[in-house]
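yo, Pyrroloquinoline-quinone synthase is done. seq:
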Amino acid sequence: MSLDLTPMLSPARPLDSADALEDRLREIGAARYHDRHPFHHLLHGGQLTKGQVQAWALNRYYYQCSIPVKDAVVISRFRDRATRIEWRHRLEDHDGSETTEGGIERWLILTDALGLDRGYVEKTEGILPATRFAVDAYVHFVRDQTPLEAIASCLTELFAPNIHRERIAGMLAHYDFVNPGVMAYFQRRLTQAPRDADYALRYVRAHATTPETREAVCNALIFKTQVLWTQLDALHHAYVLGHIPPGAFVPEEMR
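structure:
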C-alpha cells in the first residue's frame, strides 16, 4: 500500500490573530498527526498479526500511564487556581478514582484481552527504547517549556476523535480477538478528548497574543506530533521490519 505522506501545509499565513493561529494549528494536525502513519493504516486495516497488535498495545501503555504524570506536571506550572481546577479532571480521567475506573484501567483491559500478562505490561520492561525516550521527552517538555507551550502540546486532542473512530471500526471488523468491551478506552475518549481540546484551544487563543507566542504554540503542537510519530516509527521498525532491539517484547510468532 502506497501512502502519500507529503506535508499538506499551505504557505504560512502571518500569525496576526487568534483565528490565524487556529487555522495554522489545524493545518499542522492535517499534515502531521499520526493517523497518517503507515503503522496505523496496517493496524486499522487488519493487516497486523496478533503479536504485532500486542506490541502496539504494550508500548502504548507507557504513553497512557505517563499521561497523568504529564498532567500533574502541567498543573504544577500554574499559580492560577482556575486553570489547576480545570486541568485536574484529566488526572481522574486516566487514573480513575476510588469508585471509578480510568483510562489506564481500560487500557489494561485491552492488554488483558490480547493475552499479555498484566504484571509484565505494568512493569514496562519490554517496551521499545524509542517509546521510553519519546514519552519521557513529552513529560520533560511540559516541565521545561512555558506553561502556554505545555497546554499547547496537548492540542493533538483536536484530531484524536477521528482516529479513535477509525480504530474502533477497523479493529472490530478485522480482528476476532477484539470485541466492543475491549475498545472501551477509545469509546470513552470520543467524549473526553473534544472537551479537553476545546479548553486547550480556547486557552491558547486567549493567551498567545503575539506572533512570537503564537509561533511557540504551533511549535509545541509540532513537537507533540513528533512524539506520537516517533513511537509508531519504532513499532514499524521493530515489529513490521523485524528489527527488535535487545530486551524488548518479542511476539510468539517472531520467536
